[in-house]
Amino acid sequence: MAGSTAAQIIERLANANGVAPAEMRKQIGQALVNIAADTTRPHSDMLNRLFPGGGPTVDELVVALEYELYEAMMPTLPGWEWDGAGYRNIKLFRRKQ
After folding, report:
1. Which string of DSSP letters, residue by residue, matches 28-54?
2. pTM for this structure?
3. Rounded to an integer, what distance in angstroms lies between the CA atom of residue 79 and that of residue 88?
4. What's the CA gap between 91 and 76, in Å, rounded?
5. Three-class SS of residue 95?
C-alpha cells in the first residue's frame, strides 16, 4: 500500500465511506486544517515536522500521512528489516541492495 498516490488513497477512503472522491477530498482537507490549527495536541506538531516549510497541499498531506501510518503499523521481526517492498533478512543480506 505504501507508495500509493493521493488519488488512490482518497478513492479507497471514499469507497469505504460510500461518498464521492471529491467529497472525501473536501472532508480530508477540512479535517487536516482542523488538525493543524489545534496546537494543543501533538498532531499539529507532527504536521509541522512533516512539512517544515508549511503550506502542503491536501495530496501531499494524504500521501505523507499514509506513509507515516504504514511505517507505524509495520511489524518488526527480529533479524529482519522492512525495505518498503518486503522483508529482508539482515544476516543473509548484510548490506542494502
Report:
1. HHHHHHHHHH-TTSHHHHHHHHH-TT-
2. 0.58
3. 9
4. 15
5. coil
